[in-house]
Each structure stands twice: as C-alpha cells, then as structure tokens.
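WP5 quarterly update. Target: protein-serine/threonine phosphatase. Source organism: Rhizophora mucronata. Length: 384 aa.
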Amino acid sequence: MCVQDAEQGSHEMESLDGSSNKKQNWPLHCEILHTQMENLDKEPSLINSSDGLVVGNSFPLESICEDRAVTERKTNLSNNFVPALRSGEWSDIGGRSHMEDTHICISNLPEKFGRRLLSDEAISFYGVFDGHGGKSAAHFVRDHLPRVIVEDADFPLELERVVMRSFVETDAALAKSCTLESALSSGTTALTAMIFGRSLLVANAGDCRAVLSRRGTAIEMSKDHRPGCTKERIRIESLGGYVDDGYLNGQLGVTRALGDWHLEGMKGGTGGPLSAEPELELITLNQEDEFLVIGSDGLWDVFSSQNAVDFSRRRLQEHNDVKLCCKQMVEQAIKRGATDNLTVVMVSFHLEPPPQVAAQRARGRRSISAGGLQNLQCMLQGSC
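Structure tokens (predicted):
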C-alpha cells in the first residue's frame, strides 16, 4: 500500500503525469504498486514485446519474443492475484509452569486505532511474542507496538523504516516503564507480519519464526537470532559482548529481544550486544503462495520448517479450518515432546484449501541384478 495525506498524494500525481522521467525514490512496496498501476491500461501481449531489443545473429528474434511472452503471462497472473485472508491461532502452556507467550491478530491495523488513510485497502497485522523472565515484556510489546507503528508520521508510506523504528521506540518505552515499575523487568522476542495488498512484510527480533508455504515448499521468512549464528556472533563481539556456552554474555539464548534492560551489559544508552532492531523481509505474494505459519520457538523445537508446511497442508486439505489447523499443530508438538510454551498463528491467502501437489519422482533406469539376470536366463533356456 502506498498512501499518504491528500495534499501529498495530489502533488505526487502531478509529478507522475509530467514529462520528467526522473526516477522516484520510493520504498519497494510503493514501487511495486506504481508498476502495477502503470500496467493496468496495457494489453499483456503488447507490453514491450520487442521495443529497444538489441539482438545478435545467434539469438533469433522469434525465440526471444516467445520467452518474453511466457514471462509476461506469468507476471500478469501474479499481478492479478488478490489475497483472500483468513487467520487462526492457538496457544498452550506446554511443559512450562507459566505461560510467557502471547500473540495478536488485527485484520485492519489503521482502522483499529482510528487512523484514516487515503486508500480503503486494509493493512493486516499479526504477531507472536515469546517472553522470558516473566510475561510482562511480551504483553507490553503486544499492547504498544501496533499503536507505535500506526502513529508514526511516515506510516504507511515508508513502512519498512516505520517498523524498524517502532521496534526500537517500543523497546525504549519498555525501559522507561521498567524504571517506574520493576515488576515489568523481563524480555521478549517479537515477530510481526504485515500484509497490505499483495505485499508481505515480516519483521523479526529473536527466535520466533515465520514460514511461507509456496505450492508446498517451505520458505523461511525470518532467521533465528541465536548466539550460534556466525553473523550475530560477529555483531555481538563488535559491540563488546561475548558468547559463552551458547549464551549471549553467558545469560541469554537469543541475541535480539525487546526488554532485558535489567540485565547488566546487555543494553545501554550507546547500545549493546542485545539488539531490539528487527531484520526485515519484504516479498510480493503470488498465486502459488498458500499460507504463512508464525510460531514461537517451542514449535520449532519439534517441527522443521518443511514439516510444519507439510502438516498444515494435509490438515487444511482435510477440513480447511485455519484455527483448527493451529490447534492440531500445537497438539502434535506436545505429542512430540515439546517442553516450552507453544503459540501458532496462521494466515491463509486463499479461501480454498491448498491443492494437491504431485510428488516429483526421480527418473532413472533400474537394471536387473546379476543374480536376477542369471535366473532369468536359466528359465528361458529351460534348465531350471
């Protein structure tokens, strides 16, 4: 979604209609939307079929045009895709004595907080928050982060920058609250997913995980921020931290989290090895994208990413109930011996269940064994 105040929108439309070809410095999701708008009035078969091509003798023009036509047809199928969102969630205390996970599902984020936008298109917001050292930080972030995002002056035009900034601002607000009420002192990982139009933006700080099913293939939309990750370890050491026996500064099993201001050496006014900055992943959804699974780390202790996709597809093909699928996944995790709190949020992009995908079997010749060949020869000769 690329929207802003009416006055700004009018100004940008004037610049689009002008003769200048100067490239606009827009975020990725705005460039995607602008490209789609430009292509609306064009016939798919007429879009740049051969304009401006420089073709050598060894590359027949007909072949290039055929390839481009196929590519354009695929692109148009993708551009015409409109996600039909359905969501569900389920949580369980698992093998713990206290529940420190929490989650949130908001179908229309601006509407939830009374923010009127130029476009009527909804921005959906989903999040899983896995607390440690208590549930206070997880609940604080769940309750404050969505509002901080919506109330940012650049929302929703520069959404990536807004989300990055909002994680850090929410972390600072939590620190201030902890000084007023020490009982709030705790920490939480956070993973959020926002869907606007055909765009999916995932932001992650910690070891919750988001996995996309694309025609049955698992695509990880986030990376686990743990001390064993080489990239994270380099970042930690550059900021004066260290990894001891798989723990950040010998204390935490994650390298990014909100809160934990009470832990010495983790955070400070000038920064520290424990970061609240999320890593972002932005993609454009297409027809083959089926659903997104977001889970706390308790789920991923007993499910691989591909296993979670396979399990979810089978259940959705059976009953096509997203919430029931989440419940069954949590129950299966408990059967597999999960010892942590468990939270699953699922967002489906279709009203129909996932289609059956034919298994690709390896093609190869099967030769008869030497013993089998000898027996066959014996039978043919009648000597057996």
